Amino acid sequence: NHLRDLEIPLAPLAEQRRIVAKLETMLSKVDACQQRLAKIPVLLKRFRQSVLAAACSGHLTADWREENETESVEPQLLKHAQQDKKFAEALKNGQRFKSSTPFEWAMLPELPTDWCWGAAAEVVEPGAEIVYGIVQPGPEAPNGVPYVRGLDIQNGKILVDQLRRTSREIAKRYERASLKSGDVLLGIIRHTKVAIVPSSLNGGNITQGTARFRPSELISTGFLARWLESKYAQDWLHHHYRGIDMPGLNLADVRKLPVPLPPPAEQQEIVRRVEALFALADQIEARFRKAQALVDQLTPSLLARAFRGQLVPQDPTDEPAEKLLERIRQAEPRMARITRMKRKAAGP
């Protein structure tokens, strides 16, 4: 009944045909525009990954090395590693990367001569092992300690406003995983997302689905985060996933992740260049979102204009819509009889 009572704007038949033809032309252009816009996020993702690949393999700063003298940090790395009994023993036996197969090394880039490889556990601050955090945070504690879950990390940032809080008693039991400004977080269940801890989360904590890295003097926070985000590191980590329904990483594997170590000055230059290029990508992405929002409004706007009679010019020689409607009404009884006859012929 509601459909029968619905009022429909009726244009002259000739104008209807012009409207349909115009809509088909315009909407095909809108569809083509949407298809082109849909490619931009893919291109931006590839661009960012290409930047990270160049940054973490030394290609991004090849010109910088030609103009600047640097020294390898490998002597410092070895000295740093010797402070840990486990790595000192591994160094003694020449087995720092004993878990890495030739296939795994094939995932990683060749490094410039003054760079070196270090295991992830070798490049964190002594006494601050790579760890995960709270296993059971308990009920929400409004005045408690904030903790970061994997879902709180989005686009390289921690969504501070949505963090949950645990009691100080529970947080105290996991003090080894407490956070400090400049720590780097890595998701280790389902998604290997990366974020840098801001100063507002000093004293916070993490859950068992997140690993904390506290960079030593061998590596800058920014460079470590960009390495973990790179396709090289992501592929290596995903190769070590365990489980199917809920794939995750064992901390023992995370600690053995190879990490490239450029000289400190070059690390700073790499981070500076990456941030500049990513800022450019962010500007393009913002313009894309604005353009996408405008394009998304085109279809409803065109349809609204069409049914207001504003899409195509009106022709005074067109048969008026009233006459068309009158013919339809006159044809109704005949069409009703034909319908009844067809139903009767079809049988029950």
Q: Quickly count the domains.
A: 2
Mean pLDDT reading: 90
Rg over CA atoms, rounded to whole Å, is 32 Å
Label the overall shape: elongated
Give, in spatial order, the strands making up the sheet with the most strands.
2-10-7-8
Strand content: 5-15%
Described by strand count, sense and barrel closure, the largest sheet is: 4 strands, antiparallel
Can you identify the CATH class of the largest domain? Alpha Beta
SSE arrangement, N to C: HHHHHHEEEEEEHEEEEHHHEHHH
Taking the alpha carbons of the first and last residues, their distance comes to 25 Å
> Could you please say which CATH topology of the largest domain applies here?
Adenine-n6-DNA-methyltransferase TaqI, Chain A, domain 2
Regarding quaternary structure, what we see is single chain
**Structural class, from secondary structure content?**
alpha+beta
Features:
348 residues, 4-stranded antiparallel β-sheet, elongated, Adenine-n6-DNA-methyltransferase TaqI, Chain A, domain 2, 3-stranded mixed β-sheet, 50% helix, alpha+beta
Structure description:
The structure is a single chain. By secondary structure, the protein is an alpha+beta fold. The protein has 2 domains: 2-36 and 289-346, no CATH class; 71-261, DNA methylase specificity domains (Adenine-n6-DNA-methyltransferase TaqI, Chain A, domain 2), CATH 3.90.220. 50% of the residues lie in helices and 10% in strands. It has a 4-stranded antiparallel β-sheet, covered by helices on one side. A hairpin with a 6-residue loop joins strand 7 (184-187) and strand 8. Helix 2 packs across helix 8 and helix 2 (13-57) runs antiparallel to helix 11. The model has no long low-confidence stretch (mean pLDDT 90).
